[in-house]
Amino acid sequence: EDKVVQSPLSLVVHEGDTVTLNCSYEVTNFRSLLWYKQEKKAPTFLFMLTSSGIEKKSGRLSSILDKKELFSILNITATQTGDSAVYLCAVDFGGSEKLVFGKGTKLTVNP
Amino acid sequence: DTEVTQTPKHLVMGMTNKKSLKCEQHMGHRAMYWYKQKAKKPPELMFVYSYEKLSINESVPSRFSPECPNSSLLNLHLHALQPEDSALYLCASARTVRVITGANVLTFGAGSRLTVL
Questions:
Q1: What is the average pLDDT score of chain A?
Q2: What pLDDT, on a 0 to 100 scale, did the predictor assign at position A35?
Q3: Which of B35, B54, B74, B84 is 20 to 30 Å apart from A57, CA to CA?
């Protein structure tokens, strides 16, 4: 069965810290991996990764995919309280019309 | 306009009521999705519509009935729900269900929080 595993499930840091969130997957036919940020309601799209070793970057957030070891990381540098959210990893398995989500990492950034 | 709009934002209903959740997008997306999200859990797929036709039904109970009247609208009709159906219902859309050069980058709505008494 295809599955997506995120770790840690929960993380509490102080403003200014750097965090690394992990997402590993077991797939039958990987197509791409996506990261979403969910605060109160709707998940908002952060990155889509399809190729190994190519870093995607947006401000203080960056992400990279390792298709050989079947994982991705999401880095957040100089964290701010506004980064507090649940970060969801989702994988698109080819041959299916759906994304499979991990359970998410709940990040809390304290002032 | 890059939004998916869901109404109502909150809904409280009894187990004998009939109600509907609505979702609208004007991005020209031809794939639309209903997800159910319980507290502290990831979104779980319920239905996928592709070009207004039901493409995936994830073995959802018949008390949930989706409808896609046109390419911009997606409804979820609710009847005889149970308290355990209380959850956040998320609508999402994507350009198509299959993108040759990429994958499904879903755009989510803000959700409808449903409470079944």
A1: 91
A2: 95
A3: B35
